[in-house]
Amino acid sequence: MSTTVKPKAMIQDNTRCIGCRACMVACKSWNDRPEDHTDFFAGEGYQNPRGLDANNYTLITFNEIVTGAQPDWVFGRQLCMHCEHPACASACPTTAMFKTDLGPVVFDESRCIGCRACMQACPFIIPKYDYENFAPKIHKCTFCADRLEANLEPACATVCPTGAISFGDREDMVAEAKRRIAAAPGTYIPEIYGLEEVGGTSVLHLSSVPFEQIGYITGLPKTPMPDLTHRWLRTTAPVFAFLYAVFGALNWIVRRRMRHQKGEGEHT
Amino acid sequence: MNWSIRLTWWDKLLLTIMAVGAVFGFVRFATGIGSIANINNAYPWGWWVGYGIMTMIAVGGVGFTITALVEILGVHRYHSFVRPAVLMAFLCYASAITMLMVELGRPWMVWMVLVSWAPTSALYEVGWCAFLYLTVLALEFAQVPLEQAGWGRTLRIVRAIYIPIMILGVTLSHLHQSSLGTLMTLIPHKINVLWWSDNLPLLYLFSAMMAGPAMAILEHLAAARWLGFAPRMELLGGLARIECWLVGLFLAFQMGDLFYRGAADAMFIASWFAVSFWVEIGFGLLLPFVLLMMPEARESRFGLAWACALIIGGILLHRLNVAVIGLRVRHWETYFPSIGEVAITLAITAAALFAFGWLARILPIHEELPSPETRPHAATHPAGVLRGAEGVS
Amino acid sequence: MTNHWIDMLNADVVLIMGGNPAEDHPISMNWLARAKEQGTYILHVDPRFNRTSSIADVFAKLRSGTDIAFVGGMINYALEHNRIQEEYVREYTNASWIVGDDYGFADGLFAGFDPQKRSYDRTRWAFALDAQGQPRRDPTLKHPRSVFQLLKQHFSRYTPERVCRITGTPEENYLRVCDLYTATYAPDRAGTWLYAMGTAQHSHGTQNIRSYAILQLLLGNIGVAGGGVNAMRGESNVQGSTDQGLNWDGLPGYLKLPVEADVDLKTYLKRVTPVAANPQSANWLQNTPKYVVSLLKAWWGDHATSDNEFDFAYLPKLGRGFQGQGYAFLALTHAMLAGEVKGLFCFGQNPAVGGANARLIRAGLDKLDWLVVADLFEHETAGFWKRPGVDPAKIPTEVFVLPACSGVEKEGSIVNSGRWAQWRHQAVKPIADSRPDLDIVDGMAKAMKRAYDKDGAFPDPIRHLAWDYGDHADPHRVAREMNGRYVSDVTEKDGKTFAAGKQVPGFAQLRDDGSTLSGNWIYCGGYTEEGNLAARREMTDVPNKIGLYPKWAWTWPMNRRILYNRASVNRKGEPFNPRRWVIRWNAEKKVWEGDVPDGGMPPGEMNPFIMLASGVGQLYSADLVDGPFPEHYEPVESPVKNPFSKIQSDPCAQVWQSTEFDRYGTPDVFPIIATTYRVSEHWQTGAMSRNMPWLVGLVPSAFVEIGTAHANREGIKSGDRVIVSSARGSIEVYALVTERFQPFFIEGRMIDEIGIPWHWGYAGIVPGDICNDLTASVGDANSHIPETKVFLCNIKRKDRA
Q: What ipTM was reported for this prediction?
């Protein structure tokens, strides 16, 4: 009886997030990313940079929401969702993108040809490219796959001061997320972002306001994205065989007709 | 065999464009894609993919379409169009692969596709098929220079495998032309509703078929003008009628699919998406359809040329719309092809045109032309045909 | 803090005022987030909606400088609705004490004010005494001159409508805050009060804090779990630095420095040792002589004997200070500017950027003969002589920069806001030749001793210092000395003996006869024969799980986690809150259970506030120079005429006017209120954080936050360059337009407020204009802390300035 590896997941509880961005710095530290050079904030409020890029694998969004005369400041986080059925991995022609048993969707630089199909495929628009490099790479959150191997938590989860980021077995995280919503319905909107989107992901977000108000991509289908291409691609072999046979047969008929015509022509 | 030709002003222009592109290409490899191209994180695929790869492969469909028309459907009337079609297809696919070498972030790793197993990836299938198909096209066309050079033994081998290779080519084309569409089905919510469809694979296959007769007609008219022979209008008229059917059916298919998906009202929302859609449908399908319906247009070189050029333009715009223009991005993200991007694609296309023009002058591509003197067996084997082992085309 | 961080979990309501823990103490948010999850209400009172407000249940906006009006209104609300914990107030505060007839208050002034001296004769505020010389009392609290009635009368003017017209708080929010918070008067409910510089850095900052103490006493929230008056300390070890007496007028352990008039030890001890006001007061500070003598023995070792008054003569004595204003920071900077300060040791501080009226400070630095800076980076003060606009050739100061290493590169302890002294180990070796501050000071002391051995102006205090922490100064030896040890064999009254050389078990065992030494009496008990208690890391909590963790590190005093915890039980030792009890008397075993009791005597008559001479909580107190009760005054620079009285600003505030840099603005030229604050991503003057590329990447340039409505009127958009000016200078920064600043409606007028993070200077990866160029040399009446949290300014788009 083999022991099954339990896949991991993360809860991003935006009601506990205070926008301190320790996660962004810890991520840059662990992944050796260089500093950003901006003059002023590139996004809304203190948001910097404006979006994920080759040097920032996670980002806190700053969202001012005004209801009546009461202002509110709500924070959201962007990072790779490590989908259960990753579109990027299914789109990659060299399996340079793949999902490991522990949950992370990781990038193997040694296999990449730089076609950027993963960038087109990702429904959350996560993978980024360092175009200025002579030998560019795909850049995105790795779920700290190397730390997981060593039984550590991802860097962001480790430094978050308020416990906005929780990490554990996926089934436990799903249960915990549901429990929080049930225990404090006034605090949370009854939605777990990432639970069912695109067939489920490994990062479950909770929020006090609708997700589109804090910079999340919404309206995503529940079907895993790879299913959409799989429908067509799995017919490749039978279609090939079928078409080859049909075309071969038609061609044979055509050539036979031509031979007969020629034969008759010669006889006449 | 005489390989040399006299360079016309057109040849010289093409060579200049190629030189300029080469400089940009050198810079791209020395300092990275970002130094000359505008593609970015919001638009990872731009002009290079939209025009240089997707459209080149689409118009390379002239190869399998004309071949299938003659060899599989048996419409021998058009046999003289086969050689130019196969050569065009070969050069189109070669262009696409050259473009790929520039477009990929790490082109020196491209062999990795051949040693990987990624059956879930549409791009994997496209890569393999395109690689195999280029080989097929090369083998199909090889008869011509081999014949010219008098390499009899090799020629016999090539002719022996012609039938199975040809059928393989037609089959492979069906697979990868549709897979280009399959590629884009992966992102339903990222492409504007006007273009995303479950049926993208079929739409892409169909548009590649639509490219076939259009490209064949355009090539014939251009060759007639530049190589100096009278265009065979009755044949062109026949192709034009076939094309008219194809355009009409495609238009019906695309519009029908749009209505079936319930996305028809998106046509009337005031947005750049809708504008691009109307240009694509109007100039790329409706207008050529009307032109091709008219006998006067079908019988005039001018009318045929315009109709076919519009169709090709429409296919280009369709591919760009699905992969680039129709992408939903955050409001501050933009993309417009840079000079470097355009220069390199122009150079690759110029190289293809140059190669075609050169080969057309030293090899018996066009049946309509008097054969070059050094060609043996001139009388018994007219240009325009490619032969199988039995010598029956 | 009277309580501690984890104790937040025990609060039913947390009120955060004058503080922004989400940005400035982010680690503390762990506890606040968990508290919130358990149902605790978080209330945030601030001029601006910031990252702390984002997790608060109620945000009440407050015009900077009107804290006393806000809290005074809450006091009034509690008194009006009879939301006071009666037994607590009656027994444990001076509510029942009768105030003497000399006391009075009218139109903003208390009795005894001398306008020439700008000070009060505080003897006028004395209590009425009975025949035995004890303060008279009325346990019914009905006597018209009782503290309780005078309190009621004083705060009766602070009605919600009046308060909201002054503070600009929407009345609905204000009443919600009052209601939620004063509901903690119930014995089984507790409210905790968190504050920081937003409270303290005002001309009446000390009275701000006083108002919190009064409210908390009325609600019975002092000494209980989930209660307290809790300062969130600013630097990572500022708690430690004040504990060690690094203030200008203090000695270690909050002992007072002698003054000129203290001609001998006896006179000094008589002055500083309080006398119990009544027999029920334990008056723990009556033990002051033991702590002073033990300190002197620690400093001068064997040389200090009873014959030479333990070298009391070697202690420096406080004079009147610069221009009679003492020697707190503002006086020091003015003395520097006047050329009276020859040299400055500047350790871990960057006054060129961080001090109020920074242009004055930098001009003062120009006058120094020498400057010694010890810091991790070459910051603006270290490089003051090459600052923009200055010719280094014209500055004669000799500057020494000693590279100091960071906290992770050295061993030692840090005391957090909750008084927890947590020992830390060295994680990595210091870079290059950077050294721990201990090594630097040790090196300097040894060098000075050698120099003074040869000659010097007044060599004996240095020569005779008992200074031996090892060849390489060992923090353990310092810590052991802080705790203290026996100098000679001692036998206590109960027969227990202690051998010479052994660590003293606690400050109750310190003696005034020279047989013990202790570098800091409040740390006595932290490094005993048991070992280094600050290094303990046991995770077991007390049985009722109120988060005390008594064996995690060590808290002063005597590992007591919640101060004044005797106030959490009644006279029989029964907790007011049986669920979240802190201490309780076990009548069978005759011992206290739970936290270390604040005073080990059995329950009964003795009062819980053992550190006060009166033994009870001071609702009325003559200890502060500007009034026995807090009273609302406007900040020194304000656009509003004080509607509460004819006294515009605190009459005892220290308002410097002696130099060209001491200019004050009027609302016609500077109509906007400015406040200053921090962001999570940067730290103080940016001396460290603006040298960290990742942090600079997050928050690169200096900016000012301006409300959307205000910005629209000025034509300012986010990203525009703007000029912010005050009477003292002007700066150019980016503007960030935000909905989180909204205009205040004060007495019928609309008044705007803007906020400036003050982290930038001319050094570092990204320089920026210095915010403190705008602030004034105005000191709090009691502590002299600068009023950097509120001043007048103007703001214009750069092209329109």
A: 0.92
